[in-house]
Design brief:
mainly alpha
């Protein structure tokens, strides 16, 4: 008996699906339900992206501050090193002039 009724039940279900599919109000309701699902999914994706962005902003700010501080320290040390080299150059030039003067004096002494 069940085997005989099974095709009838399937035929009734298919008939009702055709009737719902051809009903314009059902089409509109189905379309609105699909749109609601899409909007909900898009909202969820947007929320996830927002949270990822906020996490990035919070973590990258600290990295950026650390990088800026490291660069400032490097600039200060490079400036100090440059100043030391300038002073060393000035001392070397003064020593060179002194040695040239003593050399000229020694040559003059040897020449006489």
């Amino acid at each position: 008996l069940l085997l005989l009724l099974a095709p009838c039940v399937v035929a009734v279900q298919q008939g009702s699906e055709v009737r719902y599919a051809s009903n314009p109000i059902r089409k509109v309701v189905t379309m609105l339900q699909d749109m609601q699902k899409k909007v909900t999914e898009e909202g969820k994706r947007e929320e996830d992206l927002y949270h990822k962005f906020m996490c990035f902003c919070k973590t990258s700010g600290g990295d950026l501050d650390a990088s800026i501080e490291a660069a400032k320290e490097k600039i200060e040390s490079a400036s100090a090193e440059l100043q030391a080299k300038i002073e060393r150059k000035a001392q070397t030039e003064a020593d060179l002039k002194e040695h040239e003067a003593s050399r000229a004096e020694a040559e003059e002494t040897m020449a006489t």
